[in-house]
Amino acid sequence: MHAYAVEPEDHAAIKAGILTEIPRYAVASGPKKVTKLCIIGDKDVWHAVQKQNQKKTIFSDVEFLDEASPDKKCDIIYTSNQRTARKLIVSMDVPGVILVSTYASFVDEGGLIGLVEKNGLVTLELNLSSAADRKITLSPDLIEISKRVVQ
Known about the structure:
- With 151 residues, this protein is an alpha/beta fold.
- Helices cover 33% and strands 28% of the residues.
- The protein contains 5 helices and 10 strands, in the order βαββαββαβββαβαβ.
- The strands form 2 sheets. Strands 1, 3, 4, 5, 6, 7, 8 and 10 form an 8-stranded mixed beta sheet that branches. The protein has a two-stranded antiparallel ribbon with strand order 2-9.
- Strand 7 and strand 8 form a beta hairpin.
- The longest helix is centred in the first third of the chain and has 15 residues.
- The radius of gyration is 14 Å and the shape is globular.
């Protein structure tokens, strides 16, 4: 995974590509395997993930949700909505759930993986203390290629 310079309409495909790679680089402690991705409010990314998941099955289930629903059994939750992401950071205290969003201060506010768009690039940002709190192990490769890592 690297930073990608793309046209804005291709950002959904790039984000989907990164989301489908997360299970290789971010692992919940224990025997649990990432199987369900929940995408909240971003149909373009949901469609792009569905397309990639059909080619190579990564997730047993990819669900689109209109709103945050903490009762859903999601292993990875992605939203591009800042208000929803902030709500999830505060309300999701379930270990092993990987939160991913796209707004600039997401990892500073306690989110785990940020997919930040700036100057035509989609880059990765990580929050290591959030990973530890959620009992997620991040691979050194993921940390190394991230544009910014918050301790």
